Amino acid sequence: MTLKLFEQELRKESKYAFKDVRNGNRQKKLSNKKINSMTDIILRNRKKGNIQLLRSCIISFGNVLEKTTMNYAKLMGGKTYPKKNFLSAKIDIVFRLSTKVYNLESKSNIELDAGKTRKALETLNRKHKMVFNGLDCNNEGWQVISKFVVWTKPTSKDAAITAKNPLEEKHLMGFKDFFRLFKVEIDTEDFFDMLQRVFSEEAEQYF
Fold it and tell me: What is the pTM of this model?
């Protein structure tokens, strides 16, 4: 039932995010896009830019997942902090369950090169301090837990196999780990099928 709840929130956010796909505005914008990358060259003059549109929508879907996570945490009884810019930085996901504050960076892909991996961890550590101070966790007696939540891997152990140094298992959270925060167990194939189904029905069918 709770995976269904996550799906409902995912569809709600998708309808908003892909409004420009349904009305054709994103397709027009992409067709007028200047050549700025090798991808733009390779996809140049392809029929209606469907590959380019697919790529654009997959990127947007990552943002949709981020917003859905906050919605879900709130519906499951967590205290969420939607006005995250009060911390003077772009914080992906912040919510509190009892005395634990979760500061999560949403990742659809953890297969980064060494330089990007190091920079990502530095950013996570910096935001950890900002959340701790911004929410006055010392006086409140709250613990801040900062991790990358990886939507393509079931557990932190699975994510750690792909991630490069200096990222370790302790820095990571798989999607099963996320749902377990709310005492919910989900099946990997059910989760992947749900993501595919929502993307297909809310975005891809309008290509």
Answer: 0.89
